[in-house]
């Protein structure tokens, strides 16, 4: 895809407040209570330059952002695989406490991101945010906790094949919700990319079925499938909601509130549903180590998710996690004595190829420009991975802004 060249606007650094003031610009300037007019002008100029550059259909594949999304996605898949492995260790010694073991992750999120939020905001401003937006983070935390809980619960009643098939539903939920509520408009090549990824997951499931590793008949297939469907739905909704929030607010704010509300919700749930499991659970040094490993994997996972949601989208995030099954088998060969079926590498390559096809859209911004933030992303935060930060840095790098440091945050 190519576009005609236009004269680029140049912004001068303000002598009064050190921000970027517009002296001449052909791009529109958004106004927002949280964004100065000068910053809006800089964002508009940067976006204008990025969106009118001559690009090819493969241009995004040559950017650092694309490879960062692939690397982040695989790291997240490994984190999920690690947490599943530690859960398997715990289940092997009859320590089945799904809600309680996740509680430590929310505690760690709170210990890390809540003090940092106080450092950035101060108590008064943080409290005003909690009063104004706390209900949003409460809903996000509830969706996250319950999505994880019912997804794990499904494995107790249904077989592995059915539970994994139901995970596809989260991708469907993400695409539908993003389309109708967030006004995301998918191009046909993106839909094709998602379908190729799903085809790769289908190859994984087929290989499991051929090897007879689908878990056989579950205790209560209907009950397990319903739990899995509910978990996948809640999981998909929470992913879209988190993408919406981290595009508008700093990551440390979102993760800090998720930790606080997660402790409350997960703590109550653990006290109700895991209480009887404690009596028959095993408690020793190995179990403590597995809980630490599980918490560490989840903490890294939660800390990195906002980045891929900003640089990509909830859809590409869910698609990346399809490779977790592949990494699970790789680890399983060393830990549990699994064997790799010849179809597994084919499935992995298909999923990666699907992600490559997804980004053949002829734009340097990919999915980082969010339609719900306005044309110039005025309602968004200039944080790591956002189109707004890319535009600000592009304006400075190309001389559209004279002087001043790169702008950004988390």
Automatic annotation (TrEMBL):
Transmembrane residue ranges: 57-83, 103-123, 135-155, 161-181, 188-206, 226-245, 252-272, 287-309, 316-336, 342-361
Record SUPFAM superfamilies: Multidrug resistance efflux transporter EmrE
Molecular function as annotated in GO: transmembrane transporter activity
One Pfam family, short name: SLC35F
Keyword presence, Zinc: no
Annotated membrane topology: Multi-pass membrane protein
Keywords carried by this UniProt record: Membrane, Transmembrane, Transmembrane helix, Transport
Entry-linked InterPro entries: EmrE-like, SLC35_F1/F2/F6, SLC35F_Transporter
Location relative to the cell: Membrane
GO terms for cellular component: membrane
Sequence similarity: Belongs to the SLC35F solute transporter family.
Protein name: Solute carrier
């Amino acid at each position: 895809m190519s576009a005609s060249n236009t004269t680029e606007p140049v912004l001068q650094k303000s002598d009064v407040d050190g921000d970027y003031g517009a002296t001449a610009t052909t791009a529109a300037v958004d106004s927002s209570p949280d964004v100065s007019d000068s910053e809006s002008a800089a964002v508009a100029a940067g976006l204008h330059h990025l969106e009118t550059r001559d690009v090819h259909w493969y241009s995004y594949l040559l950017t650092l952002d694309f490879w960062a999304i692939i690397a982040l996605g695989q790291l997240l898949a490994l984190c999920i695989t690690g947490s599943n492995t530690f859960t398997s260790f715990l289940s092997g010694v009859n320590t089945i406490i799904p809600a309680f073991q996740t509680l430590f992750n929310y505690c760690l999120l709170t210990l890390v991101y809540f003090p940092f939020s106080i450092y950035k905001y101060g108590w008064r401003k943080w409290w005003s945010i909690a009063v104004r937006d706390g209900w949003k983070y409460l809903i996000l935390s509830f969706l996250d906790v319950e999505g994880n809980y019912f997804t794990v619960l499904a494995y107790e009643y249904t077989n592995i094949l059915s539970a994994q098939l139901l995970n596809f539903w989260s991708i469907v939920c993400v695409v539908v919700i993003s389309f109708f509520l967030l006004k995301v408009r998918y191009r046909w090549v993106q839909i094709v990319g998602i379908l190729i990824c799903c085809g790769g997951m289908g190859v994984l499931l087929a290989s499991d079925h051929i090897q007879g590793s689908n878990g056989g008949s579950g205790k209560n297939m209907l009950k397990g499938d319903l739990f899995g469907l509910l978990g996948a739905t809640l999981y998909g909704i929470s992913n879209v909601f988190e993408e919406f929030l981290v595009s508008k607010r700093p990551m440390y704010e979102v993760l800090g509130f998720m930790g606080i509300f997660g402790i409350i919700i997960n703590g109550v749930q653990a006290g109700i549903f895991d209480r009887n499991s404690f009596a028959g659970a095993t408690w020793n040094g190995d179990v403590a180590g597995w809980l630490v490993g599980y918490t560490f994997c989840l903490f890294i996972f939660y800390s990195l998710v906002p980045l891929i949601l900003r640089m990509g989208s909830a859809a590409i995030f869910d698609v990346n996690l399809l490779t977790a099954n592949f990494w699970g088998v790789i680890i399983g060969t060393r830990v549990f004595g699994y064997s790799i079926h010849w179809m597994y590498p084919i499935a992995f390559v298909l999923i990666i190829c699907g992600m490559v096809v997804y980004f053949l859209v002829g734009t340097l911004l990919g999915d980082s420009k969010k339609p719900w933030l306005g044309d110039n992303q005025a309602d968004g935060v200039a944080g790591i991975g956002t189109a707004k930060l890319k535009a600000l840095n592009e304006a400075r790098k190309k001389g559209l802004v004279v002087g001043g440091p790169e702008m950004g945050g988390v």
